Model the fold of this input.
Amino acid sequence: MKFSYAVYKDEETEIQMHVDELLRHPDYLKIKMNLYCPGEECDAKLSIIRLSNGTDYFRRHRGYYHSETCGYLELDQVPVKSITEYVTENGRMTDDGINRQKQDAMRTLDNYLNPQIPIREEIKPKNKPRKVREPGEETEINVGTKVVYDPNAEIIEKDTKNGDRKILETRFYSRMPHQISMKDSNKNLKTSAVLDQIIFSESNLYVEIKANFENISLKFILPEAFFNNSRTRLMPDELLNYLKIINEYIQKENKEIFITTMCQSQEIDLEDLALWIFEPEFMSFQTRNGHKFATLTSLVIAIQTKSI
Done:
């Protein structure tokens, strides 16, 4: 069952908190560990669920159960009528998948910079009829392909080989920099930060982008794979030139440019936060006042034409 509100409890505090309020809170990592069901006298812990499509909600934590007095007890007991079993396969994202992920990530930053005040509602269970499995009804089992992102693999799309088999593209989890924790080690993420400086190595096929967000410093690393994975057939020299144009712009102009990108983490070091970007198409850019650039190329064109 999905909840939009949870109750935050510690030794001194007990307050209702909307999911959007949690995402913006500077103590996000602490608060998300102490969230409980809003039902009457219920001690069931809730977890925040963040989907790759930008949908965020609370759900009962596994291992915790609603109390007998909680109005959500019965509503949370819905039998599963079908499940999908996935066979994993290494592959890259489809173009549509990348565009969806970036659009969701850009909306997340927009909502963070321009938050909507959540409407306070009385928290009580809705009179929704419980779904009951019919006697003798079996659970339907479907088979699908789960894509594990690999920058060196081929793009996996539906084709005649797979037929109607469901393709589950790699999930990139939305995390603003202040929401990243050790639990996000070795994960696919999407995040945003303000560009500070782009640093080029002597080999030119390893670049670091220094950035910041809400007093947190981080760096995005562009490894050699980044320069060899352009879907629009940009050559490494062209990509380097684009990055140099952007770096020159952010050094000379007193303007905030946010990078909003899909990336991967390794072992998280909160004192030296580093994220890897493996494809140029993973990058998008936006400004605080709402200008959006869906690709690296579109930002460079805007700079060269002085439209920003």
